[in-house]
Design goal:
The protein is mostly helical. Helices cover about 60% and strands about 0% of the residues. It has a domain at about 1-95.
Length: about 180
């Protein structure tokens, strides 16, 4: 299910990107403005709803590839130019999409953590899936497992979510200036 959602979001991002190619591919336009336009119009279309995704490495790879194709095209470079992704992101003033998805997921986790006990539960908030019989193969990764990895990666305790200002500061990923 997430596979289709990731594919759909990438297509939505490309639609936004194509509708703005006049601005994004204009060589006279400064890269900072192109990056700002990308961050405000294209990237939100690509990551909409991603706070509930239990993402795998392959999903993040697909999103990253799509983003880098757009950024390379905007900066008038190809892969044959052998310019590193980090350099292109720095040039366009854009943070990696993986970090922004992680930020959104942790922001949502903070909301879930602070909600009152009787609040309704969204699909991705539930701890366990009731009544499902386990099939063959590797168990599916859960949203909680992904959030747990994110918290471990950033070295954040889940209870920090109750301090909103500190939580927001810890999970925020700034775009390069």
């Amino acid at each position: 299910m997430i596979d289709e959602d990731v594919t759909h979001r990438i297509k939505a991002g490309w639609l936004k990107w194509r509708s703005a190619t006049g601005v994004l591919c204009d060589k006279k336009m400064p890269n900072k403005i192109k990056g700002k336009f990308y961050r405000t119009a294209v990237r939100p279309a690509m990551i909409y709803g991603s706070e509930c995704w239990a993402t795998k490495v392959q999903h993040m790879h697909k999103m990253n590839v799509a983003e880098m194709r757009m950024l390379r095209w905007m900066s008038d470079h190809t892969r044959l130019d052998k310019i590193r992704n980090e350099h292109i992101r720095q040039k366009m003033h854009v943070a990696p999409i993986e970090d922004k998805i992680r930020e959104g997921r942790l922001r949502w986790f903070g909301h879930v953590r602070r909600r009152p006990p009787g609040a309704p539960v969204r699909k991705c908030d539930s701890l366990v899936v009731e009544g499902k019989k386990r099939g063959r193969g590797r168990p599916r990764i859960t949203w909680r497992e992904v959030v747990s990895k994110d918290l471990h990666m950033l070295d954040i305790e889940p209870d920090l979510a109750f301090d909103r200002a500190t939580w927001r500061q810890k999970i925020h990923i700034a775009d390069p200036a």
